[in-house]
Write a structure and sequence with these properties.
The protein folds into 2 domains: about 130 residues, Aspartate Aminotransferase, domain 1, CATH 3.90.1150; about 200 residues, 3-Layer(aba) Sandwich (Aspartate Aminotransferase, domain 2). The longest helix is centred in the C-terminal third of the chain and has 26 residues. The protein has about 350 residues and is α/β, with parallel strands linked by helices. The radius of gyration is 21 Å and the shape is globular. Strand 9 and strand 10 form a beta hairpin. About 40% of the residues lie in helices and about 15% in strands. The strands form 3 sheets. A 7-stranded mixed β-sheet has the order 2-8-7-6-5-3-4, sandwiched between helices. The structure holds 4'-deoxy-4'-aminopyridoxal-5'-phosphate. 4'-deoxy-4'-aminopyridoxal-5'-phosphate (PMP) binds next to helix 5. Homodimer. Keywords: Amino-acid biosynthesis, Aminotransferase, Histidine biosynthesis, Pyridoxal phosphate, Transferase. GO terms for molecular function: histidinol-phosphate transaminase activity; pyridoxal phosphate binding. Pfam families: Aminotran_1_2.
Length: about 350
């Protein structure tokens, strides 16, 4: 070990870093592995005062998101993507070495990575067969786990399975966690099924937190802009932990344009087109005899179980099509997740799928 590595904390030496989309992308040309939008949205920059620090929480961005989401301004925090929001929630509410977060895998990887980085344990309570949370097992864990569970992360639609948490399951969890821990619902993909948002439950449960992003339906993964919707006390606490100037001025300008009436109309058009394309793609995929299972259709990706998932992933990679391979993950043997890209990108995927024999 080099002398520099020796200087790092034991915890950091043990960490496995997040494998970002660009890092695993490799040599492809058709990137369908990170649930990004196929085309960049375009924006105009006004002249800006780059000599000045921006506001920590640019009021025009908060105001625009309040109008869009129907949530009051004092209940909104803006951050560098929803990934930062996940990290802030862990660091604000979990005592390192004493507390834990609860997740139900398979789910989004950043919850446990954020916990690891903060020295906080992750407790995994596997979901039921339909990937809904196992409410009784969660209750049992919250009541009896040796480390205090402080934050429960529920991803809805879940990445990678695509299912949305049932309202009654979430309400049961919210009922027995009141005063004990936060329940965070990650709605990164909610614009693809807006009627399934849990924002409506926020008025009854002050420990329900919702995270959102401009990275997916708004096609703005490159600007890093996400939101936390929560009780004012939660927001005030997170503001004690957030870095001083997370939202750069150009980011704020683009976010405001994306959240304008015009920006939202464009987003909705893009979402409608993508859903149509996803449904056509799924229809074709179901016809392939080596496809064993198509998971839930609620977002801009679809998880598929093949007879030989690893073989299919490699056959696509050989042609420069980068998908996301889940074949080593518990309960996802032979599963590959496909992001819904442009018409041309999906046609290319289908033509490779048609050429494969399994
Ligand atoms: N939540 C989920 C479920 C995701 O899939 C992602 C993107 N990979 C994020 C949050 C993070 O999104 P961002 O930081 O770009 O807002």
């Amino acid at each position: 070990m080099s002398s520099i590595t020796e200087l790092a904390t034991e915890r950091v030496k043990q960490l496995t870093p997040y494998l970002s989309a660009r890092r695993i992308g490799g040599k492809g040309h058709n990137f369908l592995n990170a649930n990004e939008a196929p085309k960049s949205a375009t924006f105009l920059m006004k002249s800006i005062t780059l000599n000045r620090y921006p506001e920590c929480q640019p009021p025009e961005v908060i105001e625009a998101y309040a109008d869009y989401s129907g949530v009051a301004e004092e209940n909104i925090l803006v951050s560098r993507g929803s990934d930062e929001s996940i990290g802030l929630l862990v660091r604000t509410f979990c005592e390192p070495g004493r507390d834990a977060i609860l997740i139900s895998t398979p789910t989004y990887g950043m919850y446990s990575i954020s916990a690891d980085t903060a020295g906080v344990k992750t407790v995994d309570v596997p979901p039921a067969d339909d990937f809904q949370p196992d409410v009784e097992a969660i209750r049992n864990t919250v009541e009896n786990n040796p480390e205090k569970i402080k934050v429960i992360f529920i991803c809805s639609p879940n990445n990678p399975t695509g299912n949305v948490v049932d309202d009654d399951k979430l309400v049961q969890i919210l009922d027995f966690t009141r005063g004990r821990c936060l329940v965070v619902v990650d709605e990164a993909y909610i614009e693809f099924c807006p009627e399934k948002s849990k924002v409506k439950l926020m008025k009854d449960y002050d420990h329900l937190v919702i995270t959102r992003t401009l990275s997916k339906a708004f096609a703005l993964a490159g600007i890093r802009c996400g939101f936390t919707l929560a009780d004012q006390e939660v927001i005030k606490l997170m503001l004690k932990v957030i870095d001083p100037y997370p939202i750069a001025d150009p980011v704020a300008q683009i976010a405001v344009q994306a959240l304008s009436t015009h920006g939202i109309a464009i987003m909705k058009e893009r979402v409608a087109e993508l859903i149509e394309r996803r449904d056509r793609f799924v229809e074709e995929v179901r016809k392939l005899d080596y496809v064993q299972e198509v998971f839930y259709e609620n977002a801009n990706y679809i998880l598929i179980r093949f007879r030989d998932g690893e073989g299919l992933f490699k056959a696509c990679a050989d042609k420069g099509i980068i998908l996301r391979d889940f074949h080593t993950k518990t309960r996802l043997q032979n599963c590959v997740r496909v992001t819904i890209g442009s018409e041309e990108e999906m046609n290319e995927v289908l033509s490779v799928f048609h050429s494969i024999k399994q």
